[in-house]
Design brief:
about 120 residues; alpha+beta; globular
């Protein structure tokens, strides 16, 4: 699976992802990883700025809006891309925080500047 730079947010302001997860790095950044529904290609977002747990939408710091469909999950492509992305970006540790977004009453709060965990 090759790496390439994504199109500008001006060209692709919104993407829909299926088989998605929310991953947190040791830098306290949270990223979406999922499969684009239009191309079937795995995608990692830039750090998340906003997340709406009820509408299942997210906005990254780049300004791109993500619409999440299907249940969260992994595919071989998303696992491979996440591991390769972590190596390329020198991520030393990460955790899957998807569950916090599936239970809004105990999950993260939404902030325009940063996502915070209530716990």
């Amino acid at each position: 699976m090759p790496f390439w730079s994504p199109a500008s947010v001006d060209v692709e302001p919104e993407l829909t992802l299926q088989y998605w997860r929310v991953m947190q790095t040791e830098r306290d950044e949270r990223h979406l990883i999922g499969m684009r529904t239009d191309t079937g290609v795995a995608r990692v977002s830039s750090p998340l700025r906003e997340f709406d747990t009820f509408a299942l939408t997210a906005v990254s710091y780049s300004g791109r809006r993500y619409r999440l469909v299907s249940e969260p999950g992994w595919t071989r492509d998303t696992v491979f891309l996440w591991l390769a992305w972590c190596l390329k970006n020198e991520v030393r540790s990460c955790s899957d925080v998807t569950a916090a977004y599936l239970h809004p009453a105990s999950g993260p709060t939404v902030s325009r500047s940063k996502l915070h965990s209530d716990t």
